[in-house]
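[Automated response] Your request has been received and processed.

Submitted sequence:
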Amino acid sequence: MSTRQTITDKLTAAFQPSFLNVIDESENHRGHGGWREGGETHFRVQIAAAAFEGLNRVARHRAINEVLADELAGGVHALALEIRSDNEPDPRAARVADA
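Generated structure:
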């Protein structure tokens, strides 16, 4: 199973997100620290879930880092997180509306 799929499966099981997008950005980091041939080293996670309601930014990041501890200790070098609760607006929607 790919690292991207493992991340998707673990986050889905842990948080039952209403929105989840796991993006492998490894190719954007070719030649940088932690990059390796074949990718699966740098990821961006965009997630919305009721489980994040009432949690501050640090608590949200810690919750995800705990779920993905094995991947972060293994081959995942970088993890960019965009986390919101279901009741918070999607900041990407505002960028599209402004364009």
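Summary generated for your ticket: Helices lie at 3-15, 57-67, 69-73, 91-98. DSSP finds four helices and three strands in the chain.
If you did not submit this request, please reply to this message.
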